[in-house]
Design brief:
Blueprint lengths: L12 E6 L7 H13 L5 E6 L24 H12 L2 E5 L9 H14 L6 H5 L3 E8 L7 H13 L3 E9 L10 H7 L6
Parallel strand pairs: 1-2, 1-3, 3-4, 4-5
Helix pairs in contact: 1-6
């Protein structure tokens, strides 16, 4: 069983979950800049593109049979193991229709199933880790409220620390790096 360490000297393990529909999109570019510039010394990082680890549609089994969920397999197991191994979970997710992209929402839906796997203790094991977001959008920052609320409320429910969201403006590939405010913020985002 993996438990989050409370030892401040323990190495932090960042899991970057790329939920973009476009490979190497603006959210990824901004997240990579933040990782290169501001990850704590000695921090590990792992990057997973959710589209490369597709999950099946989520089925709510809480009120059927014994209400338990089976152990995940395949891509679900890969994502579960990576999630539990991380001290810091970073959603790299562009703003799509004012919220998270489909792959990120589906991944979060599967958390409900993971909470129902007998003996896994997913909810307890996630407590104490930190949830972050990195988002590119092609609109005013105030349009990102629903996405930010989804992540912040998820962290609150799971008793995770809330690291915040790094926002950058850009639509065409690479445009986010022209957003000076976002570039400056990226350089210290994970440090504070």
């Amino acid at each position: 069983m993996i438990h989050q360490s409370t030892d401040a000297r323990a190495s932090r393990r960042f899991l970057f979950l790329d939920a973009s529909a476009r490979p190497d999109g603006n959210s990824v570019r901004l997240a990579r800049l933040a990782a290169e510039s501001s990850l704590p010394a000695g921090a590990e990082q792992r990057w997973l593109r959710l589209d490369d680890h597709p999950l099946p549609p989520f089925r709510d089994l809480r009120h059927t049979g014994d209400g338990g969920y089976p152990e995940p397999a395949g891509h679900g197991r890969t994502l579960l193991d990576a999630t539990l191994a991380a001290t810091d979970l970073v959603f790299v997710a562009p703003l799509y229709w004012y919220s998270l992209p489909t792959s990120a929402k589906l991944y979060l839906d599967h958390w409900l199933g993971w909470m129902g796997v007998p003996g896994l203790d997913f909810l307890a094991r996630m407590g104490g880790s930190t949830l972050w977001g990195v988002t590119a959008l092609a609109a005013d920052d105030d349009k990102a409220g629903p996405l930010i609320d989804s992540l912040r409320l998820t962290a609150e429910y799971m008793e995770m620390r809330w690291g915040g969201v790094l926002l950058g403006n850009g639509s065409r590939p690479g445009e986010v790096l022209d957003d000076e405010r976002a570039v400056v913020a990226a350089k210290s985002f994970f440090a504070g």
